[in-house]
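User: Hi! I have a protein structure encoded as tokens and I'd like to know what sequence might fold into it. I'm fairly new to this, so please keep things simple.
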């Protein structure tokens, strides 16, 4: 028996759990306590047949611990879940997942929520994934969540190990996730024939690397169809080596995606400081987390995060390469450097098929702190080069709350189009996360009438 999901909110928390078949006739109770306070735990009985309960009347900005107990007809405890930690407080959007920074339940992988991705499953449900991160930890567990009411409520669905930096996508009636085994590990593809409930064995597309020598790097980026092939951006390198070189992998749309031979990798483009328009100075970390999109001219482009901190200019530029779709093994070519609002952390670009325009979610910087990620903004471009700010989706830079950009982040967005709306997920740090980077929530957001 275990707690599968925590959903803290304003003076409340929802606790989901699962129990084995052998416990189906048990009475379940939630025991919870305020950490640091000497008092007996309070208890709430779970309604018969339910596997979740919502606690109310809790204190915001206060740490709690909770566990689930199974009791027999005599009131004797027969099983108990591990204890989980949570902290209540206002959270924008809908909470998909939560992990307290001092909760070591998944310590083999990490203690923070990371790398969200979203897709519409073949049966119409929304699916969200995220991995569990902490520096120098295993970084190899991904959790999958499902919503059957278009994001209003969520439940835990399954887990995948090893999987990190996963990108969800659907193809020919199946759900896939493309990720790495760990940071700079092997590039792996998993397939689910039942909309994420179970997953088949991984297909290794690229071999493992290492932080010391470099290896496959990616983020939850879109998988797009172009010229009869599926494409997504990856890079090779590491922060330790000081550089990431952009590339891509692709497969024919009619091929068996679980066959490693179906996949082709481009070469990886070294950084060249003599290219026109590049920043002055060496961009440590290079060009990463690229968005592959079809350009207005019908070509295939990769728009990348540009690590310009310490360079001139230090902010406001994105790096663009061009891919030859007729030669899927060919190294991309440098295209240009463009002005872009929010190049210092992962941004997400998709082309709107209805208008042909491009929409991006990114973290624009409005202070002298270049690591600022507490504003998530929607921008638009008609030519993939000139970008206009549409509106801020989440903005904690101007608020009455006590936390600032050191503790708050709405970052690493991923999204899909849904009619006139955008459905987005964020790696959210809020309510005493470890810091802005090591987040404690995955949150879901509906951006209504995004074209207006």
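Assistant: Happy to help. Inverse folding works backwards from shape to sequence: for each of the 452 positions I chose a residue that suits the local structure. Here it is:
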């Amino acid at each position: 028996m275990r707690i599968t999901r925590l959903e803290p909110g304003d003076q409340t928390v929802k606790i989901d759990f699962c129990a084995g078949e052998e416990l189906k006739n048990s009475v379940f109770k939630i025991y919870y306590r305020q950490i640091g306070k000497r008092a007996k735990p309070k208890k709430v009985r779970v309604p018969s047949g339910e596997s979740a309960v919502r606690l109310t009347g809790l204190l915001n900005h206060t740490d709690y611990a909770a566990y689930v107990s199974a009791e027999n007809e005599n009131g004797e405890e027969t099983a108990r879940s591990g204890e989980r930690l949570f902290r209540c407080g206002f959270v924008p959007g809908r909470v998909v997942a939560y992990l307290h920074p001092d909760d070591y339940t998944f310590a083999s992988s990490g203690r923070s929520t990371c790398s969200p991705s979203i897709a519409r499953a073949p049966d119409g449900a929304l699916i969200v994934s995220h991995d569990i991160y902490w520096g120098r930890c295993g970084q190899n567990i991904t959790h999958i969540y499902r919503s059957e009411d278009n994001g209003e409520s969520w439940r835990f669905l399954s887990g995948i190990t090893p999987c990190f930096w996963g990108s969800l996508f659907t193809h020919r009636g199946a759900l896939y996730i493309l990720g790495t085994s760990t940071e700079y590990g092997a590039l792996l593809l998993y397939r689910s024939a039942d909309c994420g409930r179970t997953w088949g064995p991984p297909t290794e597309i690229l071999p493992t690397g290492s932080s010391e020598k470099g290896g496959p790097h990616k983020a939850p980026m879109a998988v797009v169809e172009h010229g009869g092939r599926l494409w997504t951006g990856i890079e090779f390198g590491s922060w330790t080596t000081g550089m990431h070189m952009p590339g891509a992998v692709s497969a024919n749309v009619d091929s068996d995606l679980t066959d490693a031979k179906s996949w082709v990798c481009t070469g990886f483009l070294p950084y060249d400081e003599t290219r026109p328009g590049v920043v002055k100075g060496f961009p440590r970390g290079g060009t990463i987390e690229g968005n592959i999109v079809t350009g207005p001219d019908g070509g295939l482009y990769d728009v990348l995060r540009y690590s310009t901190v310490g360079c001139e200019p230090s902010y406001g530029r994105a790096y663009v390469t061009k891919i030859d779709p007729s030669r899927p093994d060919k190294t991309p070519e440098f295209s240009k450097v463009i002005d872009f609002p929010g190049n210092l952390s992962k941004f997400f670009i998709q082309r709107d098929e209805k208008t042909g325009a491009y929409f991006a979610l990114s973290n624009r910087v409005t202070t002298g702190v270049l690591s600022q990620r507490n504003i998530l903004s929607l921008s638009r471009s008609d030519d993939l080069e000139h970008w206009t700010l549409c509106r801020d989706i989440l903005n904690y830079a101007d608020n009455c709350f006590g936390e600032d950009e050191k503790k708050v982040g709405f970052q690493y967005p991923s999204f899909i189009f849904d009619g006139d709306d955008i459905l987005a997920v964020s790696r959210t740090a809020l309510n005493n996360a470890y810091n802005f980077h090591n987040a404690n929530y995955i949150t879901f957001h509906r951006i209504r009438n995004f074209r207006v």
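A useful reference point when you look it over: DSSP finds no helices and 33 strands in the chain. Feel free to ask if any position seems puzzling.
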